[in-house]
Structure formats: structure tokens, C-alpha cells
Amino acid sequence: MAIRSMDCKSNKVLISGGRETGGLSSFAEALKTGFEELGIETEVLSQSALVRRWRELRDGNVLKILSTGSIFLAPVARNSIAVVHGFPSVNAQGKVKSVLIILSYLVGRRYSRLTSVSHTTSIMLRNLLKIRVDAVVHNPLRREFSQRAEQRTDRRLLTFAGRLHMVKNLDRFIGPLRKLLGDYPCLSVAIAGTGPEEARLRSLVPCDCRFRFLGDLDVYRLRELLQRSLVVFSGNENEPFGISYLEALSQGCRVVMPASGGGLEIAPDLIGKGVFLVPLPLGDDTILKTLRQAVAAEGTVPFDPQPFSPAAVATRYLNLACEQP
Q: CA angle 232-155-189, nearest 5°?
């Protein structure tokens, strides 16, 4: 294994990002906020911009947090941490990109410290690819979600927020949701986000005003949507972590998700109270039953977002950079 150069005296942080979207974008921006709250100058840069910062890549006093394709810069980047955001899925990324993702993890393992955003992903890496991570550091919440949500009694939405992709299994929720709305006419469904499945999902609920497609929302509109949501749901059985679950819990929502994936690590003490699990394999009856449990649950969700605050997560990355290789 190559010698890793790690320096505790990081006076600046560079985080790869720029062209990333969705969870990766929120990760980079939230982590930037965390380092800045600790008084450390921080920039989020695209991979091409990082390449042009050769002097800082080679500077051991500048900590680099590298994700996705930027991990391939690890061999030349002194004082770097590579982040595994998920186990590659051929369905989601295709064969070629999946192979490149695995190669990037091997590069990160050899030339930098390697972290994972969940124990679930680290176990898959270890058992399937024999790649061991140095630490698990859960994703940070964006600052807009870092404070406890106010209690509200006017929550009337069943919400999905994220990329409309086949891995989310939203089509499997349509039938159960329509049955549930028959019993709860005061509720409606909000679907925030865009993606390749949008047209097909719209075709499953033609002219049904109880289903609203909202498109991509900025962070403030998303927070306002979650504050009006009773339940947030998703059907991704292989969710690496689930930042949408974390944001939903921070805003007082109940969460419905498969009984698998990294989302189980967010609030295990809330399972059955604020987090409701759909048994595998996902089916109409089990989805409907779990949605009913979530809607009928009483009380507010007692979730503490502090462990996921930007500063808390940034501190974990700094501590990791200070550990001896």
C-alpha cells in the first residue's frame, strides 16, 4: 500500500462537487458549511477545477475530500479522503460506469483514506469486493434542516422527494397510495423531483388531482414541503444512506422505507414509531399496510438532528485526517 500523507494542520479544505446533483450536491454544500463553521476556508470544486489547482492538490496543509470521479486524483493529492457514497448499481449507472466506480474505490483505498457514508455500504464493499474502509461517516444535513422542526397539526401530504429513477420503485407505491387515499380523503400525494421515470409515473395517475408532480425544488421550498408532509416514502431497497430520510425526520415527518439499506442506520430507535419498514420483497399489501401504520401513528417524531449537523460531520473528517495511517 502506498504511504498516505495526512496532516492535522489543514488550513483549507477542497471538496469535489460542482457538477454533482441530488444527494452528492447536498453532501458537498453541507460539508462546506460545516468546515466554515469550524473556521476553515472551504471550496467546492468540479473535477476539472481541482485538476487546475495542482499546487493545492500537492499541499499537505490543504485537506481534499474526493467523491466519484475525483477520487482518481488521489494518487497525486496529498492529505486526501475519498468518500464512498454507495455501492454501484448496474441498473442505475450501467456496466461501464459501475466498473469505473469500483476502480475509483480501489484507487481511494490505495492512495488516501477511504470512508463510507454508511455501514451498509462498507459491509458490501468488504464482503463483495474485499475493499475495507477506514471509517464510516454519515452524511451531514444541510444547515436549513439542522434545527428541530416545529410541531404542526396541518400535515396532509404523503411525499416523495428525490430523483425519479427506477431504483426508487415509486411505481410500486402508486396502487397502495390510491387505496390509502380512498380511506383518507383529506390526504394527497406530492412527488418532488425529476428523472427518467417521470413520464411513466404520470401515466399511472392520469387526471388524478390527488397526485401532484412538483419538479425540482430548491432547499427552502423542499423544507416547506416537508413541514407540510405527514409521511415521506421511498422504495429503494439498496439506498446507500438516504439523505431524503434524514431531511424528512429533521422536519417532523414519518418515514416509510424498505427494511434494508443505509436508511436503517439513521434512527434505529425510531423504528415502529417514526420510521416504518416495508418487508422485502416489496408488494402492494405490505406497502399499503406500512403506509397505514405510518398515517395512523400518534405523536410527533422525537428526532435529534445534532449528530448530523454540518460542523459535527466536518469534525469527524478532520479527526480522520489526523489519525496515523
A: 50
How do residues 305-314 score in pLDDT, each as one tens digit? 999 999 999 9
User: What backbone phi and psi angles, to 5 degrees, belong to 69?
Assistant: -60, -25
Place of cell 436549513: 144
Long-range contacts of 2-6 (CB under 8 A, 24+ apart): 2/75, 2/110, 2/111, 3/325, 4/111, 4/112, 4/113, 4/325, 5/60, 5/78, 5/79, 6/60, 6/79, 6/113, 6/321, 6/322, 6/323, 6/324, 6/325
Neighbours of 111 (CB within 10 A): 24
Determine the Cα–Cα distance for residues 320 and 325; give it in Å rounded to an integer: 10
- Annotate 200-223 with b (16+ C-beta within 10 A) or e (fewer): ebeeebeeeeebeebeebeeeebb
Could you tell me which residue, 238 or 278, shows the higher pLDDT? 278
Residue 273 has pLDDT above 90, yes or no: yes
| DSSP single-letter state for residue 193 | B
At 99-108, the pLDDT tens digits run 999 999 999 9
Q: Please report, in angstroms and rounded to a whole number, the separation of the first and last CA atoms in the chain.
A: 11
How high is the pLDDT of residue 11? Answer: 87
3-state SS record for 136-178: ECCCCCCHHHCCCCCCCCCCCEEEEECCCCHHHCCHHHHHHHH
3-state DSSP of 256-296: EEECCCHHHHCCHHHECCCEEEECCCCCHHHHHHHHHHHHH
Q: Is 190:212 a contact under the CB 8 Å cutoff?
A: yes
The amino acid at 256 = V
Percent of the chain with pLDDT over 70: 94
Q: Is the dihedral of CA 285, 291, 296, 302 positive or negative?
A: positive
Residue 24: other Cβ atoms inside 10 A: 19
Rg (CA), the chain: 20
C-beta atoms surrounding 230 within 10 Å = 19
Phi-psi region of 39 (alpha: psi -120 to 50; beta: other; left: phi over 0): left
Q: How many CB atoms lie within 10 A of CB 288?
A: 19
